[in-house]
Amino acid sequence: MEKTALSPEAEKFLWESQRNELTESLIYEGIAAREKNPRNQEILRNIAHQEREHEKIWRSYSGKEVAPNRKTAFFYLLLSRILGFTFVLKKMEKGENAATRKYAQVMEQIPQAETISQEEEKHEQELLEMLDEERLQYVGSMVLGLNDALVELTGTIAGMTFALMNTRLVALSGIITGVSATFSMAASNYLAQRAEGSDDAFRSSLYTGAAYLVTVAILVLPFLLFPTGMYLPALLTMLCSVIVIILAFNYYISVAKSLPFLRRFGEMAAISLSVAAISFVIGLVVKKFLGIDI
Predict the structure, then answer these.
(1) What gap in Å lies between CA 205 and CA 187, rounded to an integer?
(2) Global model pTM greater than 0.70
(3) Can you tell me the distance from the alpha carbon of 174 to that of 221, in angstroms, rounded to the nearest whole number?
(4) What pLDDT is attached to residue 114?
(5) CB neighbours of 221 closer than 8 A, spacing ≥ 6?
(6) pLDDT for the residue numbered 1
């Protein structure tokens, strides 16, 4: 291939592209090595091979060897163990899409840049959509557990905060209510799935129960950490935790399932906080009406 003099911007673009392709090939290979599903393994290794082929194309222009970023590869492989490979790979693809604006800077010197980018984005996205990760099959079960826990426990704890005015009593009530509701929700989901003839009813109920129980622990924790008289700071901390949980979960789902983020986040936050506000007022009214003073 005939070599032409490249500007510093074009050279930087090529080296970054080469390094990114090699780094991503390491990530795909690392995830494939841990994956038990043969079909997923094959797809991931095909993508890794494509990334190495793309690096060769960029190298044919730059004429230089580069090394992958092993720290970045390690980070993403670690993240894939925690959040699942689908989230990590789609997050990587979003990062690549954000970088496409750089192509305009080098198109005059590297005419193939935009074409290569568009082709690899299209092909890789098609392959990623073919991946089948177990935890994403049970997103509905996780949403059921998480949403139910947020709505019920946020309202219950908010209502008890001013009724009891004692962080330990609120925590005790929240734990008893939350654990009982966890088993109840998991059992209800199991029975509902069995009634529909599902073969994965037990596993689905486990995901529902786990999501519910983790949410309970996070919501009750502020009332265990703050002194007994600091029920208002504990309540505010819990409400902030609710927002963070909703934000994190909806961001995860929006990336892993390619769904809109803001609308889902706003809807879930509005419901949970509205229930908390109504329950808070009910707690004050009941305390006043019954004349209870703890």
Answers:
(1) 7
(2) no
(3) 10
(4) 67
(5) 241
(6) 45
Round to whole Å and give the CA distance between 72 and 53: 20
**Residues recorded for the chain:** 294
Q: Residue 54: which of 110, 8, 109, 2 has the closest Cα?
A: 110
Model confidence at 237: pLDDT above 90: yes
pLDDT tens digits for range 196-233 = 777 778 888 888 888 888 888 999 999 999 998 898 89
Domain 8-133 has CATH 1.10.600: no
Q: Which of 82, 208, 39, 213 is nearest to 138 (CA)?
A: 208
Residue ranges of the alpha helices (H) in the chain? 8-34, 38-62, 70-83, 85-98, 103-106, 112-130, 134-137, 139-164, 167-195, 201-225, 231-256, 262-290
Domain-wise residue ranges, the chain: 8-133, 138-290
Q: Residue 39: CB partners within 8 Å, gap ≥ 6? A: 130, 132
Q: Indicate if the pLDDT at residue 110 is higher than 80.
A: no
- Dihedral of alpha carbons 73, 250, 142, 255, sign: negative
Instruction: Indicate the SS3 state at residue 107.
Output: coil
Task: Give the model's pLDDT for residue 203.
Answer: 81
